[in-house]
């Protein structure tokens, strides 16, 4: 297997030490040295890291003709020995003592047999031979849930349904995620690409011979979405009475119960215990609100970070209830799942096949997308392809 690593703890966003990108990649960064040191061990376990992490590596762009800015990118990829590329996540058990156990538990029977379980599957767990506090989770290669963009309302509904069902599954088993936000929602996009995308630079082809372009839409080739990152998750033996936890800030900084009232103190002086189940509900609702219904703008620059998607206002009443400031007034995930099915079950085939445009799309680009959408739509209707994607099809 070829493995694409995530970097160990370090500042990945520090300024490049050199002016040109290809020069900055001519040296091994501090955050990469762990992977270089463990490359022989990983290879002995059947995992081949990228060439830059292997012994004796020298930048190919220093000795080859051509555009060096292309060559240093191409260096990130190499042929897989068995055609499988995976991701390795290094977990510090002192910082996240339950992450490995929680993730592997959710990936194992009886949990793995529940069709609502969309928690990332664990392929293997590796123990660092040199340091007992580190373990590696071997995970499938996934990509951002919304790239490529959604083509139809039906595709959005399928995505939301899978994630809502996953949270319902977790809560039913008395598990809270506690760090639900868009970056922890991923997709197995392999059905969409005839030519695989690069594991690290996912906008590029695996061989770096051009941009990675999806060959199919989700309607043509349904995909599976996954929830990742269980480092803050908790499983309770009982939820009667409801659990109370000390505040812990995850990726969603807008949670009402996490907004303290003393700006002079850390976290605003936040100290009140909270029930994490309604907080999960809020975070799911806020994801739908920010990524689909309203969009999101940067408070600092007023720049659009996520553009509003059009044609989804029928979700507004449910999302409004899920994001109420008072946690006790939010529906449970069982109620969310039931209301979601009630809202979407009455949508016509015409609505489900409707294109999902973005509010800030360039008009010419939008015209192109609309034209290709209608050409594809006629073919899908003629072939009787369901308007609502399903992995069972």
Using brief descriptors, characterize the structure shown.
393 residues; alpha+beta; Phosphorylase Kinase, domain 1; Transferase(Phosphotransferase), domain 1; four-stranded mixed β-sheet; three-stranded antiparallel β-sheet; 10 helices; globular; ATP binding
Molecular structure report:
The protein is of the alpha+beta class and 393 residues long. The chain folds into 2 domains: 33-140, Phosphorylase Kinase, domain 1 (2-Layer Sandwich), CATH 3.30.200; 143-391, Transferase(Phosphotransferase), domain 1 (Orthogonal Bundle). It has helices spanning 21-24, 33-44, 68-74, 99-106, 153-172, 276-293, 316-322, 333-345, 349-352, 363-382; strands at 2-5, 85-92, 124-127, 134-140, 143-144, 175-176, 185-188, 224-227, 234-235, 296-297, 304-306. The strands form 4 sheets. It has a 4-stranded mixed β-sheet with strand order 1-2-4-3, covered by helices on one side. It has a 3-stranded antiparallel β-sheet with strand order 5-7-8. A two-stranded antiparallel sheet has the order 6-9. Strand 10 (296-297) and strand 11 form a beta hairpin. Helix 5 packs antiparallel against helix 6 (276-293), helix 5 packs antiparallel against helix 8 (333-345) and helix 6 runs antiparallel to helix 7 (316-322). It is globular, with a radius of gyration of 23 Å.
